């Protein structure tokens, strides 16, 4: 009995410390927002990676003196730095685009509650809006139609995955829309096998899933000889089916977080082909945004070259001449024009910069067609590196 009381007391102390940590984290976030306010009228980048590195090295040393592992301190503060950077960018973007409607936004996404697009929408707007009006859609085309018609403010679209590659249907639809890309998000995808009742993998003979998760979990699924796949329009549809059937032989592929919305439990976790599985989403709207100069920007464009040898290479040479880094090149067939392709290109840089404007002018001369799909803040925050000497254990 005494041991139980001691354990209860220790847990109460831990809970009190957790509350203090949360209060300190909130205070730190408030201070970093003040940093963003001080940069509002000064063209100074949000990130100073040299300072971040010096900060991490100092914190690692202080942590060692307190008996904390260097890798633990590094991971903790890399996450804190990422949160600080994204919050500052969101604040500066709000100042740059005062006409953007807040605090309530409406978002169209694939599937229903619990889908990966649903989770991405909530994650993206968690630091940008107080309330989200949700519009689940049955297809990518429906998402675009909802935004184009003015029924919703934004559409969230998955564009590529680190395991299964590009989502071609979305690229093809972007050829025919007047919407602008106004944001991006990289979302960790943690596929689980979910079930509505207590069961075992050996009892499962049917799995409901969207085509993309099936592709991303192919190694796991190929080992399950007794299982057949029933394809659904979204992961949310699959989870709804499992919830409705409540059968010991039925499971779905989805996220543990999404499954909780349907009272599903994780039968097996980490079933994706790759341990590090991420999907990149883009956010589309009827009007483009201006990207604050303090924020790293991406510009996405599509172009069609002439049918001459080396035409694409000539375009890439222009990018090199202006020092513009290309992060993505995707080719898709042009509908109605056999053997001709449209190229999608992601570039690092603000479309309003002098270099980008001159580069686009040169590309226009070389191409049959070119269109900027959007310029938007880059959400990919590279973790601050730490010298190995700082991480090394001192004997």
UniProtKB/TrEMBL annotation:
Q: What Enzyme Commission number(s) does the record list for this chain? A: 4.2.1.51, 5.4.99.5
Residues at which substrate binds: 11, 28, 39, 48, 52, 84, 88
Tell me where in or outside the cell this protein is found: Cytoplasm
Identify the metabolic or biological route this protein is part of: Amino-acid biosynthesis; L-phenylalanine biosynthesis; phenylpyruvate from prephenate: step 1/1; Metabolic intermediate biosynthesis; prephenate biosynthesis; prephenate from chorismate: step 1/1
In terms of CDD domains, this protein maps to: ACT_CM-PDT, PBP2_Ct-PDT_like
GO function terms (MF aspect)? chorismate mutase activity; prephenate dehydratase activity
GO terms for biological process, alphabetical: chorismate metabolic process; L-phenylalanine biosynthetic process
Q: Which InterPro entries does the entry mention?
A: ACT-like_dom_sf, ACT_dom, Chor_mutase/pphenate_deHydtase, Chorismate_II_sf, CM_dom_sf, CM_II_prokaryot, CM_P_1, Preph_deHydtase
- The domain of life is Bacteria
Q: Domain Prephenate dehydratase: where?
A: 106-286
The protein's name:
Bifunctional chorismate mutase/prephenate dehydratase
Lineage of the organism: Bacteria, Pseudomonadati, Pseudomonadota, Gammaproteobacteria, Alteromonadales
